[in-house]
Amino acid sequence: xxxxxxxxxxxxxxxxxxxxxxxxxxxxxxxxxxxxxxxxxxxxxxxxxxxxxxxxxxxxxxxxxxxxxxxxxxxxxxxxxxxxxxxxxxxxxxxxxxxxxxxxxxxxxxxxxxxxxxxxxxxxxxxxxxxxxxxxxxxxxxxxxxxxxxxxxxxxxxxxxxxxxxxxxxxxxxxxxxxxxxxxxxxxxxxxxxxxxxxxxxxxxxxxxxxxxxxxxxxxxxxxxxxxxxxxxxxxxxxxxxxxxxxxxxxxxxxxxxxxxxxxxxxxxxxxxxxxxxxxxxxxxxxxxxxxxxxxxxxxxxxxxxxxxxxxxxxxxxxxxxxxxxxxxxxxxxxxxxxxxxxxxxxxxxxxxxx
Length: 355
Description:
Elements: H1 14-24, H2 28-35, H3 42-46, H4 64-77, H5 81-90, H6 92-98, H7 109-121, H8 124-138, E1 147-155, H9 163-170, H10 180-183, E2 191-195, E3 198-210, E4 216-223, H11 232-235, E5 242-245, H12 252-261, E6 266-269, H13 281-294, H14 296-307, H15 318-340
Parallel strand pairs: 1-5, 5-6
Antiparallel strand pairs: 1-3, 2-3, 3-4
Helix pairs in contact: 2-6, 4-15, 5-6, 5-7, 8-15
């Protein structure tokens, strides 16, 4: 087959040759495709869509596992629904990961949005996270020998409201005069907060991380203004043997809650200086020792920021924010799982002169 004059003849093996070239260059998605048993998610992602057929005919739905893999692509590469539709049509690596060919139909942005919404309404986002946590436990990657709790901001687009509107939103009411289409574009669940002189607007991603593997074990989502210690009971449990946290978790009341929720855990919480009660040199040295373990949770947040586009979300409301943040944490665990189970390559053979 020929294109316009001056262009080369089409090679029917061009696609396969290009994919082989991508593999040699180190296509990360091939590793993700092969490392994870994606079929284990099928029952969970198909359950929300089970319904009686309305009649014969109609276009067959897209494969649910493939749609779930699209959602994971969005979280790994931090792309919106419209952008991921374009990327799937444009990138051979995405198509290969999803099991699509050049002549296969690609779901559009609205289909992707509806798939995620259906998962959210059925609570499947949390079920998927828990399902893969069981996989990690079966593989012995979650040891529970030590756990680290921390939180990071998940910002969303900042609102521009009047003082009266802000007061009404803070009181839990919808400002008067907002029409339906305006209410749908206003996030009344997100909150402002300030940390180290900087202002943030949105939500908080509270996580508990396994000390040994740096895998996320538990997740909780709150408004950004919520203190880090509020969802502690959702994060810690009796299986934790040791708990690490920064100075935000210091205090008698917090320690009492931790001991009640995690009865078998020893606490390694950073001491915090108070007014007229500075830290002693012994306290500072103990904090430095605890930091050698606690800093591992920062590696998780760092990976999300540098390799996964951060935790910025564009959804409206805490329910959708919880879904997106939970899926982001699941996407991180999948990526971390591939790294932890990656076979160790053999060292190159020594040259005769090196023997």
